[in-house]
Amino acid sequence: MNYKVSLTIDESLDVVSSLYIDQEAMLIWEKGLKRIEDRELSLFQTGSSGVLVFGFNEQEMHMKVSVEKNELPKAIDLIYEVPGAWNLCKNTFLALNDKKTLWTMDVEFRFDQPMGLQLEAFIKKTEDAMNMFKAFVEHRK
Q: What is the pTM of this model?
């Protein structure tokens, strides 16, 4: 399953890209995220990996995250893994001007078993997550 989502953030490229990999900021804007555990290197360096720990109904869900490539402020490719699913997110950031950044995410999902879920549901979930980050960036301080 593949799709692409884009949105414009009212902030400079440097601010957007630095906040995107700021672990303390992630704990604020990423819904349900309780903590981040580094595994290999410092998370968000090329070749690094870690675990995102989410809390849901008194339980924890662990999601492995690996950085395939970090070329920020312009791009970062992240791979997310949970049992049965693999997800590549190729994030690109483009300065539209000094105060606007276009964020595009090319998304690929692979599943061990057919999921029976509609593409639209995945697109909506991605848009929701991207909009949470956008709101955080534009309304922080």
A: 0.92
Instruction: Give me the amino acid identity at 35.
Output: R
pLDDT tens digits, 65-87: 999 999 999 999 999 999 999 99
Which pLDDT score, from 0 to 100, does residue 97 have?
Answer: 95
2-139 topology per CATH: Alpha-D-Glucose-1,6-Bisphosphate; Chain A, domain 4 (3.30.530)
- Picking from 43, 47, 115, 128, the residue whose alpha carbon sits closest to that of residue 83 is 115
Tell me which residues of the chain have a pLDDT lower than 70: 141
For residues 26 and 9, give the distance between their C-alpha atoms in angstroms, rounded to a whole number: 16
Q: Cis omega (within 30 of 0) on the bond before 73?
A: yes
Beta strand pairing call for 85-97 and 2-9 = unpaired
Q: Under DSSP, is residue 21 helix (H, G, I), strand (E, B) or coil?
A: coil
CA distances from 60 to 13, 40, 53, 55, 57 (A): 33, 21, 6, 5, 8
